[in-house]
Design a protein that fits this description.
Shape: globular
Structural class: alpha+beta
Radius of gyration: 26 Å
Length: 279
Amino acid sequence: MKTIKSECILEIYIKKEYLNKLYIKYIIYIIYGGILKRSIKFYPTTEESGKFISPPEPASKHNIPQWFKDLPKYKYNSNKFYFKGFNNLTAKSCMPLIDGFTSGYTINLHCDVQVTRENIDSDIPTFRWAWNQKNTPDPVKYRNESKDSGLCGWNDIDGYDDLEFNWMPSWCIRTPKGYSSIFMHPINRIDLPFYTLGGILDTDKWGEAGNHPFLLKKGWQGIIPKDTPIVQVIPFKRESWMSDVDLSMTDEFQKQINKRNSFLKGYYKNFLWSSKDYK
């Protein structure tokens, strides 16, 4: 009897320990995967950069342009969702567009940069800035390759100078294991006088600030102000995907459209949209 009782006690103890481990794992999951958000880390390339240059910030802070803020809600000065048989709402009510502006983080210009074209015999612009802090990178650097060298594939792009320039960031980026980051031109910012080329970096293993090639609008001169977003960074989880064609979902699409059409406005935002949070 004692042996049987001892075995029962041992079995109960083992089950209890197993449940405790499961509980601990669950708590860890809640803390790190649920309640607490994923953490993206920014760290400066030099001590001086950390003191004098602001780190990347949520895109919502710098990437919503003034022209979009000033955009009226309605197209035809009428507080009606439909006007003369047409949808009267402007792009200011488009949540996918706003998500594009505000997703991720932006690397922002840390000083004013003046662009002039003084050499009448050359289309290559001149960049100037007053920033002169020791042990911090210049905001712009000329690239080595040129049109004649044949090393660059972004020549003769309509509306832009040849690819001759790099943005030089002062902050590195590190994401959690399994997460990469897409670096791209600030979304929807066609108003900017440049276009930053995009790329994907596995920032969980390599977060070096690097450089970001950009094209300048042909003939453009002026000042690119401090805090202008020059690169948008959006972290994402690396996953394998497989495409599939499912013709049976057409009926589901039609049902979704019919449901949407039963509302004058706000269907996507109120029933389908999910908030994206970047701090």
